[in-house]
User: Which sequence fits this backbone?
């Protein structure tokens, strides 16, 4: 018999567990699908890079893969050796049409610009969806993803694997307990980008490899000539038509902890404090510093959130207060050494530092003040499956799809959609002049003081690739 939980019961369960950030759709098993005791079937969109492990991990948790799709036939053939019984496609639209009701869930692990078109189509087919971070390429798509997920009542999960870490969940509990007081500043920095940015489009065209479905790779973006090694398979992240830059690549990981702990939704303004600008309307800048402004939120203090990439760092007056070993790494970075990454929450009674990209480990500062600190009572469920963070998050997703894990997915599209909306307003600010404060109406998804930026909230889709 199919297990089903109503939205009312689901919310009641979440509140009882103290998980107020659970804001996605209900935990349900799709009517007419396999029961919790039967094997789920899956289809995978994108099986190279991260998509390769996504496919393998859901299979390890008991999902039978009936279809795999990748625009590159070479990647498809390689993954096909692992799943010889799965039908193979280079266009996910053809896979969805061909397999129809033969699968229950989908993984979407493509470049950012095709996340929404694949995931929304799958959800409208009543398929559960696991989608890699960032959830979407555009702010509008993030809103659509969470709304469609709620409407269709499917299980969803975004691939910010650190959400499965006990350490991140403990850190969220610590912040919510008031251990470091009112948090009025958050600083997050990253060692990204590690791909080309600040460059223009190359001239000319190269022959399209016979194994590559270039039309499907371009997807909803405007068609452009193929250039070997420029976009596919990895360097697409820096191109504004396909990726979301350093912010999109890492912020769903590194800002996850403070966003979850402090409900950092719906900034009222964002400023690109350091902003060389979008280069020739093609690639993100090499380095940026962004300032997000959040008002008071249900009793939480107003908060400024700073993001740094490309080697930019918080002021030395702040980093000088960090533990000596990490401070030395930062000092070395300022002198041309390797880049560091961290999240730092500055409260009225102390600070919390996480040097872990996924928020899986943290320290309270100054350390001498917290030597006898007792963690607050647990309020967020811990995933019982033991293993790596990737495997744990997939376990959470698959078991929720089966109806066998009552807490449900933590990074469901209700949460992940809001996280992604928040993050991507930073890329909107990069479209303005350096130091120009953009005022943001999150409810309407519009910039109110610079309306010319609103064209970048959404995109024009190529025929055949609309939401």
Assistant:
């Amino acid at each position: 018999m199919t297990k089903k939980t109503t939205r009312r019961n689901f919310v009641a369960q979440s509140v009882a567990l103290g998980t107020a950030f659970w804001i996605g759709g209900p935990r349900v098993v799709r009517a007419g699908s396999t029961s919790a005791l039967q094997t789920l079937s899956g289809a995978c969109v994108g099986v190279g890079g991260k998509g390769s492990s996504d496919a393998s991990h859901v299979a390890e948790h008991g999902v039978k893969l009936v279809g795999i799709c990748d625009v590159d036939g070479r990647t498809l053939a390689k993954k096909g050796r692992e799943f010889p019984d799965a039908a193979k496609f280079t266009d996910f639209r053809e896979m969805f049409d061909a397999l129809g009701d033969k699968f229950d869930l989908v993984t979407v692990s493509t470049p950012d610009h095709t996340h929404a078109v694949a995931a929304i189509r799958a959800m409208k087919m009543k398929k559960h969806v696991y989608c890699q971070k960032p959830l979407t390429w555009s702010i509008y798509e993030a809103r659509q993803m969470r709304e469609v997920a709620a409407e269709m009542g499917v299980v969803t999960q975004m691939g910010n694997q650190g959400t499965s870490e006990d350490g991140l969940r403990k850190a969220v509990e610590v912040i919510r307990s008031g251990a470091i007081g009112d948090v009025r500043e958050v600083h997050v920095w990253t060692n990204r980008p590690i791909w080309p940015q600040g460059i223009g489009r190359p001239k000319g065209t190269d022959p399209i490899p016979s194994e590559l479905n270039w039309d499907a790779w371009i997807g909803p973006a405007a068609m452009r000539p193929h250039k070997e090694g420029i976009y596919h398979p990895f360097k697409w992240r820096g191109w504004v038509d396909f990726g979301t830059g350093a912010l999109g690549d890492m912020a769903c990981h590194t800002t996850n902890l403070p966003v979850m702990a402090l409900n950092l939704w719906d900034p009222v303004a964002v400023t690109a404090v350091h902003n060389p600008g979008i280069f020739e309307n093609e690639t993100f800048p090499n380095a940026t510093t962004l300032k997000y402004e959040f008002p008071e939120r249900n009793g939480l203090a107003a908060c400024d959130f700073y993001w740094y990439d490309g080697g930019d760092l918080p002021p030395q007056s702040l980093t000088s207060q960090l533990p000596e070993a990490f401070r030395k790494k930062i000092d070395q970075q300022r002198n041309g050494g390797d880049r560091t990454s961290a999240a730092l929450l500055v409260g009225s009674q102390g600070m919390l530092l996480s040097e872990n990209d996924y928020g899986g480990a943290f320290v309270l500062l100054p350390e001498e003040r917290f030597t006898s600190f007792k963690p607050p009572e647990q309020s967020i469920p811990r995933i019982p499956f033991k293993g790596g963070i990737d495997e744990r998050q997939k376990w959470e997703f698959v078991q929720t799809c089966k109806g066998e894990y009552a807490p449900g997915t933590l990074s469901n599209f209700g949460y992940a959609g809001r996280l992604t909306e928040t993050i991507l307003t930073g890329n909107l600010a990069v479209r303005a002049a350096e130091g120009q404060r953009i005022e943001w109406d999150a409810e309407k998804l519009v910039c109110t003081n610079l309306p010319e930026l609103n064209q970048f909230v959404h995109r024009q889709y190529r025929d055949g690739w609309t939401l």
